[in-house]
Amino acid sequence: MSKAKTKTRLLAGCGMLSAAAIALQYLEFPIPLVPSFLKLDFSDLPALIGAFAYGPIAGIVIELVKNLIHMAVSQSGYIGELSNFILGAVFSAVAGLVYKKYNTKNGAFWGGVLGAVCMAIVSFPSNLFIVYPFYYNFMDKAAVLAMYQAILPSVKTIEEALIIFNVPFTLVKGLICVGISMLIYKPLSPILHGKK
Predict the structure, then answer these.
(1) The model scores a pTM over 0.70
(2) How far, in Å, are 19, 23, 55, 154 from residue 27 at the CA level?
(3) Contact at 8 Å (CB) between 118 and 91?
(4) Per-residue model confidence (pLDDT) at position 37
(5) Does the 3-28+37-192 domain belong in CATH 1.10.1760.20?
């Protein structure tokens, strides 16, 4: 395939995956046992698939496009989109890098798992130092903590709340995306790579 065709295929594939990510970002829903503002969505899945198909940079670009477009309807003063981008970029970049080095189904699986773990770890400082301090301008820190305490009264600090709730939530969200990607990547691969 010529360079021009390869570039066209890459742009078309990233565009299609970005559109899917944007659509999935609107399909968010709360889950039990976590504060209501932590909602589950699968908008990182297309970026993960893009990272497997086209490399880690493609995954990051899909995350960027998704969040830039979502800023038009932001209800968080863009901080939610920044947080989503940071975590999604870590997830897809790590997974894509591992898969690039180990181009097998096992490489994709363990790359995705490592990406999910890294995303969960990064969620702690990201929330603690970027996201929550911004939200404290609109909601008192004690009120935020109270939302966690309504579920688990023994939680005493935001740091503790993030470790107990946000980090596992982020990990599970990533692992679900990895599981789905393992089921759908192979059937999608010929379409993404322009093969019949």
Answers:
(1) yes
(2) 13, 7, 26, 32
(3) yes
(4) 78
(5) yes
- Residue 19 burial (CB < 10 Å; 0-12/13-18/19+)? middle
Q: Residue with structure tokens 């995956």?
A: 17
CA-based nearest residue to 113, from 34, 62, 181: 181
Reported confidence tier of residue 122, pLDDT bands at 50, 70, 90? very high
Mean per-residue pLDDT, 118-144: 92
State how far the Cα of 141 lies from the Cα of 106, in Å rounded to an integer: 43
DSSP assignment of the chain: --HHHHHHHHHHHHHHHHHHHHHHHH--EE-TTS-TT-EE--TTHHHHHHHHHH-HHHHHHHHHHHHHHHGGG-SSTTHHHHHHHHHHHHHHHHHHHHHHHS-SHHHHHHHHHHHHHHHHHHHHHHIIIIIHHHHTTTS-HHHHHHHHHTT-TT--SHHHHIIIIIHHHHHHHHHHHHHHHHHHHHHHHHHHTT--
- CA 41 – CA 32 distance, rounded (Å): 14
**Who's near 13: CB < 8 A, 6+ residues apart?**
50, 53, 54, 58, 192, 193
Reported residue count of the chain is: 196
Residue 138 CB neighbours (<10 A): 10
